[in-house]
Hints:
The protein has five helices and no strands. It is an all-alpha fold. It has a single domain, classed as Four Helix Bundle (Hemerythrin (Met), subunit A) (Up-down Bundle), CATH 1.20.120.
Amino acid sequence: MSLQLTDYVALAEELVLRDDEVAHRAAVSRCYWAVFSAARIAMGLKGHVVRDIHREVIERYRISPVRGEQEVGFILDLLRRFRNHADYDEDTALNKGIAQRAVLYAKHALSLLDKG
């Protein structure tokens, strides 16, 4: 069985159900990576083809003339901020609500990318 990016979001949903911050941080991270990877693949980019691939993918979607793609760019930017907080701001609490929102945003972005 090959990995499906939606599997990351399914795992994030399971992690959100747990009552610990580490699980919530991991859920946020998985949501970002699922959407980022799907967006990067949809653009035809593989691996790190540009220096700041994350910023490149987000900006390409944000400036797209297509409304759904702009929305993906907005969600990616938000998820990246959530993920940076989850992965790098260990001194600041991350609550379950952020993880829950990350799951909802990730599902929505993946559905937009699936339509595209």
